Amino acid sequence: MTLPNFIVIGAAKAGTTALYWYLSEHPAVYMSPVKETNFFAYGRDAEGRLLYGDPEVHHFPIQTMAEYERLFDQADGAPGIGEASPIYLECPQAADRIRAAVPSVRIIASLRHPVERAYSDYLMHLRHRGERFDPPRDLTVMAPWAAPDSRWMQVSRYHAQLERYYAAFPRTHIHVSLFDDLRHDALGMVQGVYRFVGVDPAFAPDFDTPHAIGGLPARRWLERVLTNRAVGAVVKPILPMGAANWVRRMRARNLTKAPPLPAELRRELTSRIFRDEIERTGRLIGRSLDHWL
After folding, report:
1. CB 133 within 8 A of CB 199
2. Which residue, of 85, 151, 257, 285, is most buried by count of CB atoms within 10 Å of its CB?
């Protein structure tokens, strides 16, 4: 039986898709062929309802331990074996479930400014639903995503989410980086992750192919085709890496840059909702986040 020795837990919209691919490219790393297995977040109550997750947002392609184990059958003794499921950071049950199954696993998290993350997550929500971006509605404190109790803002509350992992695993087994690191020093950030999982940190992945970039689709029909889960489930296993990268580049060309988050709106929401959260998260991870305030 082979199980991962590291797991990327999120946060969503904080560079985890890019990190999945950069890890996949490393010759000493084997990544689950299913990105976002979501296995350790899956569970149902006696009535069959999900214990965590929104069925319109979250999908659970792997639901049994047998299915999960089969994902790593081809790892062939790779020094680094991993998966990436951003839902794990937000799911209350995931940390304990991971510890029970793989107690020595290493945990990787990437965080993004909470307001920027929520805004980016909302833009993805619009893309997936084929809805139009409406500046008068979406760039104000009254926007659906900006409400303190909205799903987008709740996912950005990192402190309690990370606390569960620091309670479940040794601090030395948790690596937290920032989306800012990926923006300003992608090679340094990725090589730090390589070092953490115990593979050659000198390897440099392909930074030219865009991964899960944000934006708004110029042609919504093309976005629907390129992100269709059913099509992806059939095509992805037989698609070579070069062809997959071509698809990602095509999708990137179809996305236009979304209106930037107004600085004043960012400051207001940060101050009103996240100031204490940011300070507590910085103390927890041992890194100043004052530049977010």
Report:
1. no
2. 85
Burial class (CB in 10 A: 0-12, 13-18, 19+), 106: buried
Handedness of CA 88, 93, 96, 99 (dihedral sign): negative
Give the separation between CA 25 and CA 204, rounded to whole angstroms: 9
Considering Cα of 139, then 143, then 149, then 153, what sign does the dihedral take?
negative
User: What is the Cα–Cα distance from 44 to 253, expressed in whole angstroms?
Assistant: 39
Residues in the chain: 293
Residue 8, exposed/middle/buried by CB under 10 A (0-12, 13-18, 19+)? buried
Residue 39 CA, distance from chain mean position? 14
Strand blocks (E) in 26-173: 29-31, 80-84, 106-111
- Return d(Cα 280, Cα 275) in angstroms, integer: 9
HSE at residue 220, side-chain half, CA atoms within 13 A, is 9
Q: What single letter denotes the amino acid at residue 174? A: I
Q: How far apart are CA 145 and CA 119, in angstroms?
A: 7
Q: Which of 76, 77, 83, 80 is nearest to 98 (CA)?
A: 83
Please state, in angstroms and rounded to a whole number, the distance separating the CA atoms of residues 90 and 161: 6
pLDDT digit string (tens) for 221-232? 565 655 565 545
Q: Are 215 and 258 in contact (CB under 8 A)?
A: yes
Tens-digit pLDDT profile for residues 194-244: 999 999 999 999 998 776 556 666 565 565 655 565 545 544 555 565 565
Reference 40, options 17, 10, 14; nearest CA is 10
Instruction: Report pLDDT digits (tens) over 30-84.
Output: 999 999 999 999 999 999 999 999 988 899 999 999 999 999 999 999 999 999 9
10: β partners: 109
